[in-house]
Design brief:
The strands form two sheets. This protein has a two-stranded antiparallel ribbon with strand order 1-2. It has a two-stranded parallel ribbon with strand order 3-4. The chain is an alpha+beta fold. The chain contains five helices and four strands; from the N terminus they run ββαβαβααα. The chain is globular and about 40 Å long. Helix 2 links the parallel strand 3 and strand 4. It starts with 29 loop residues before the first strand and ends in an 11-residue tail after the last helix. Helices cover 34% and strands 9% of the residues.
């Protein structure tokens, strides 16, 4: 668990993570890559905000990496940029929307917690660029550990007919 300490009355009121009151939730930097993609094909790809345009870029990037004749299935929460009719979802991708208010079903929530706990907590970021650099550096460290990504995303109850 990541914790923030500050003199009473001076600390930010927020969940652990990248905290900067001047940056709204829709302007939080997102370093995005396919969840369990091998590190060799990963790259730094910060997006300055989470919105429909960023989601479309993400879908297009995933689509380009889906092998010919294959199909990708994406688990998504119900953020507005995931559910908008303004997205042009490529034919080789099927989004599956998770139930509302159920972060325990979304493995990527565990990824963000792992990043915060291991590389992003107890730090002060002087600039927006410093936040992006730190987030992308943490992301690149994580994708260099595919076994860690797999273990973060595993769910004991999701192994029907398979050995974990």
């Amino acid at each position: 668990m990541a914790r923030r300490m500050a003199k009473s009355g001076n600390g930010p009121s927020a969940e652990p993570g990248l905290v900067n009151p001047q940056i709204s939730a829709t302007k939080t930097p997102i370093c995005s890559e396919r969840f369990a993609q091998p590190a060799a094909s990963a790259r730094r790809s910060p997006c300055p905000r989470a919105d429909t345009e960023a989601m479309q870029l993400h879908l297009d990037e995933i689509s380009r990496h889906v092998a010919e004749g294959a199909h990708a299935v994406l688990l998504l929460d119900r953020a507005g940029w995931h559910t908008t009719s303004n997205l042009d979802v490529p034919a080789n991708i099927t989004p599956i929307l998770l139930p509302s208010r159920a972060p325990e079903l979304n493995p990527v929530e565990n990824v963000w917690q792992y990043l915060r706990s291991n590389w992003l907590s107890n730090r002060v970021f002087e600039t927006y660029d410093a936040i992006i650099d730190a987030a992308c550096e943490a992301w690149m460290k994580l994708i260099a550990r595919p076994e860690t990504i797999t273990s973060i995303g595993m769910r004991e109850w999701a192994h029907i007919g398979q050995s974990p």
